[in-house]
Amino acid sequence: MRIYWTLIIIVLVLLDQLSKWMVETMLPLQQQIEVVPFFSLFRTYNYGVAFSLLEGLGQWPLVIMTALIIGFVIWLWRGLGTNRILSEFGYAFVIGGAIGNLIDRAFLGKVIDMILFHIDSLEFRFAVFNLADTFITIGAMAIILDEILIWRRTRNETKEQDKEVHDG
Which of 36, 42, 97, 122 has the most Cβ atoms closer than 10 angstroms to its Cβ? Predict the structure, then answer.
């Protein structure tokens, strides 16, 4: 892992922690503050993982599980081939987001969430999430997109080679 990606991870963690500190010090708990008609800030806590899954598991099992997942993602990243900038970007974002939430779990026993998308006329409210969750999602999407692009490139190269063999 190059120093460049390490610096990006550090910046992502700092942005996540700064946003959570600002929310904790400036937003009232469980009160929706509308920014635009479909987006609000809403300070709440998540004692589980995504969508509050595993909420009853407890703080330390979730901390250990998160640390193991971060280790696994780093292992996957280290096995990545060359010239995979999109995947490297993705892995950095996944790790940065995961570390941001790990810090919350380890030191607070919960994750601070504050981003709420909603459509009031449809009585729709998406699960409240945070900046770290956004980083993880963006990172996962980048990795998946890179894998699709590699697959398509490999598939097209194979078709061209097959055509040359059959034509030649």
Answer: 97
The strand pairing partners of 45, in sequence order, are 112
Q: How far apart are CA 122 and CA 60, in angstroms?
A: 38
Answer yes or no: is pLDDT of 52 > 70. no
Closest by Cα among 123, 80, 128, 131 to 103: 131
147's tokens:
């894998």
Task: Look up 113 and say whether it is catalytic.
Answer: yes
| Arithmetic mean of pLDDT, 132-161 | 89
Which of 16, 104, 133, 146 is an active site residue?
133
Domain that residue 83 falls in? 3-167
Q: What is the arithmetic mean of pLDDT over 133-139?
A: 97
DSSP 29: B
E strand residue ranges, 63-141: 111-119, 124-125
For residue 129, the 8-state DSSP code is: B
The domain total for the chain is 1
Catalytic residue among 16, 104, 113, 146: 113
Q: Greatest CA span in the chain, whole angstroms? A: 72
Residue 13 vs residues 54, 72, 84: alpha-carbon distances, Å:
23, 18, 23
- d(Cα 147, Cα 153) in Å, to the nearest integer? 10
